[in-house]
Specification:
Length: 150
């Protein structure tokens, strides 16, 4: 038995299957909040919502985004445990994980390169970060929906 089979048939996988609909609801609600925070922040970086400073948007949105990401990650891990062997070979799931890695790396680069306390000028780099973020997170949502159909 490999690790994916072990996970799927473990107590975690069995419990996740019993609560699968509720885990999906938590995953979708968490994603809704996360994507809302990300979209507002990225649109601010692209020049929209100018009345909201970038420092304020980080202060107001980052905590909520982090909390919702924790909900999404935990529910996602449990959803994976329920069907680990099927999901591991699903191309939409694999592409979703690749896009997730890109989105997280993109966020790390932004927060490493720019301190929220200083004013971020509308540089091409910042706009590229925002566009990559928006595209990656939209792709993650799309791939999440395609998982059921591939």
């Amino acid at each position: 038995m490999n690790i994916l089979e072990w996970l799927e048939y473990s107590a975690i996988g069995e419990t996740a299957r019993q609560f699968y609909p509720w885990l999906e609801v938590m995953h979708i609600l968490g994603f809704s909040v996360l994507i809302g925070c990300v979209a507002i922040f990225d649109l601010r970086l692209l020049g929209y919502y100018r009345r909201l400073s970038i420092a304020d948007s980080v202060r107001y949105l980052l905590r909520l985004a982090r909390m919702s990401f924790i909900i999404v990650a935990l529910s996602g891990l449990l959803l994976f445990a329920a069907q680990a062997t099927l999901l591991a070979v699903n191309p939409a799931f694999r592409f979703k994980l690749l896009l997730l890695a890109i989105a997280l790396l993109n966020a790390v680069i932004f927060h490493w390169k720019f301190s929220p306390s200083r004013q971020v000028k509308q540089l091409i780099f910042v706009k590229a970060i925002a566009i990559i973020s928006l595209l990656a997170w939209m792709g993650i949502v799309i791939c999440g929906r395609f998982i059921a159909y591939t």
